[in-house]
């Protein structure tokens, strides 16, 4: 349980600072970044599978149709999430992207209740309600439907649900997910080369950063995959507020995106909800220890 909490927190912190990485690569088209991200993630995962001696488990999962198909579908779901996020960051929508990851915990908690029959007590429901009000006000404050936010929230919510429904070593599951989309990525990059749409004269640092997309993609997903299997899905959802908060601060402080009164209200609601949820979790854990 403790390892699950800390690995999940680690994943969200890494995701929170990723806008800085994608901004560094903003001269590269979003589609090319995504394709590089998929290819190098797959190669990195193959090395990890070799290092952890999980080839047999990987092969068994591939031979099991239900498991293989579920995680291959997950590969396309998370790839859609990656593309929208990269595009949003590099087109000045970091705050709208962070809104998506504020909404996502609510999606995760709803899925936790509906799909996994997890229960929330009165204080937890109150926390969900406060966070929902903040997200609703922020959504209405945009004056238009924030499609970036809702695509990010829904795709990652269902991605996490598959992880929870089919427990599998995070390395193995990510190997299957990236295997599913690698052929598409390679075909896309080949087409970009043939049509002279890849700039080979980019600086060495850009090429190094493109190679590094495999690590910055796979590492937090491995941590998240482990955490999602070892802690309640409702807790996975609430810890998720860490990443968008970091991204929101980066968007406002580093890249000077507008931070309105709607953002202030939503931010206050969400952190108040986190306080109530965390306080309730501490009280419940303390009572359990006393009973033991």
TrEMBL record:
The record ties this protein, via PANTHER family, to:
ACYL-MALONYL CONDENSING ENZYME-RELATED, SOLUTE CARRIER FAMILY 35 MEMBER G2-RELATED
Assigned protein family:
Belongs to the EamA transporter family.
Recorded protein name is EamA family transporter RarD
Sorted alphabetically, the keyword list is:
Cell membrane, Membrane, Transmembrane, Transmembrane helix, Transport
Where is the protein found, in the record's own terms?
A: Cell membrane
Boundaries of each EamA domain copy?
3-139, 150-278
Q: Name one Pfam family in it.
A: EamA
Record-annotated membrane-spanning stretches: 5-22, 34-51, 71-93, 99-116, 123-139, 145-162, 174-194, 206-226, 233-255, 261-285
**Native species:** Exiguobacterium aestuarii
């Amino acid at each position: 349980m403790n390892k699950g909490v800390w690995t999940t927190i680690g994943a969200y912190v890494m995701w929170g600072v990723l806008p800085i990485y994608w901004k560094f690569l903003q001269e590269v088209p979003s589609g090319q970044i995504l394709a590089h991200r998929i290819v190098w993630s797959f190669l990195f995962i193959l090395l990890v599978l070799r290092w952890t001696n999980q080839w047999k488990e990987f092969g068994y999962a591939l031979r099991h149709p239900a498991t293989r198909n579920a995680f291959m579908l997950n590969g396309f779901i998370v790839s859609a999430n990656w593309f929208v996020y990269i595009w949003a960051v590099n087109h000045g929508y970091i705050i709208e992207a962070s809104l998506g990851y504020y909404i996502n915990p609510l999606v995760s908690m709803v899925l936790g209740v509906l799909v996994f029959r997890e229960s929330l007590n009165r204080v937890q429901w109150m926390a969900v309600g406060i966070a929902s009000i903040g997200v609703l006000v922020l959504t209405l404050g945009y004056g238009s439907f924030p499609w970036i936010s809702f695509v990010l929230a829904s795709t990652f919510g269902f991605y996490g649900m598959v992880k929870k429904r089919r427990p599998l070593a995070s390395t193995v599951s990510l190997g299957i997910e990236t295997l599913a989309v690698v052929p598409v990525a390679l075909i896309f990059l080949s087409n970009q080369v043939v049509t002279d749409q890849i700039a080979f004269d980019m600086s060495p640092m850009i090429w190094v950063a493109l190679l590094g997309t495999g690590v910055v993609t796979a590492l937090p997903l491995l941590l998240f995959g482990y955490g999602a299997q070892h802690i309640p899905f409702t807790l996975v959802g609430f810890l998720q507020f860490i990443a968008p908060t970091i991204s929101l601060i980066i968007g406002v402080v580093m890249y000077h995106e507008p931070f309105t009164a709607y953002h202030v209200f939503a931010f206050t609601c969400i952190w108040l909800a986190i306080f109530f949820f965390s306080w309730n979790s501490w009280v419940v854990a303390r009572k359990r220890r006393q009973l033991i």
